[in-house]
Design a protein that fits this description.
Radius of gyration: 24 Å
Oligomer: single chain
Number of helices: 1
Number of strands: 12
Shape: elongated
Length: 212
């Protein structure tokens, strides 16, 4: 009798645990997600390959900070807004003395994509674009600007692990197309021959999102 009662209690406990796991995510058609992430982006750029120059710091890797707000629809579709701020720069000696350059880049844009959310695990495949609100290079050689503000594009895959009903940590990998244009200062080209500053390349990041 005692053995039967023990097995019955164990069975009820397992069933209760299974129900709790399956109901971990609340049944909602639309969820609001607010996220923040720190990334490392790796570009192959002519700004880091000036002939005869010695570098203390290069543009690549550079470190964007990203944030976003969006909606997850039926756990299958995501649409949202995103902002990016890039921490990028170089310190080098082109043979005429040390020069320090700092890129000021702040952009806002949008993202959309597909999602697969199942209890604790979530997967997103997203594509997006960004429009620069601020884009200039502050340098010891002058302030360099570009006459046109180019859009940037990116795609990323995000894997998230929920630790509660309201937040999850995520990792992401992706690729960014960042052709920023040709910069000049008083008629002086930033890169030789008026070449554009291209910071395209793969990136990876870590972040957290909050779900409501």
């Amino acid at each position: 009798m005692r053995v039967s009662l023990t097995f019955m209690c164990l069975a009820m406990l397992l069933c209760a645990g299974d129900v709790q796991a399956r109901s971990y995510r609340r049944a909602k058609d639309v969820r609001i997600l607010i996220s923040g992430a720190f990334e490392a982006s790796f570009a192959s750029t002519a700004a880091d390959t000036v002939a005869g120059a010695s570098y203390t710091t290069k543009y690549s890797p550079y470190y964007p900070i990203a944030g976003g707000i969006g909606v997850l629809i039926h756990d299958n579709w995501y649409i949202g807004a995103r902002f990016d701020y890039w921490l990028a720069g170089r310190v080098f000696d082109p043979g005429t003395g040390s020069q320090s350059d700092a890129l000021r880049y702040l952009a806002i844009g949008g993202e959309l994509g597909i999602a697969q959310a199942d209890n604790r695990l979530q997967l997103y495949i997203l594509g997006g674009l960004g429009y620069p609100l601020q884009l200039q290079i502050d340098s010891t050689a002058g302030t360099f600007t570009t006459p046109t503000k180019q859009l940037t594009f990116h795609g990323r895959v995000v894997g998230a692990l929920s630790f509660s009903r309201y937040h999850a940590f995520f990792v992401e990998v992706g690729y960014r197309f960042a052709h920023l244009g040709s910069f000049t200062s008083g008629g002086t080209d930033y890169l030789s021959g008026g070449a554009e500053l291209d910071l395209s390349g793969p990136f990876a990041g870590l972040g957290i999102h909050f779900e409501f």
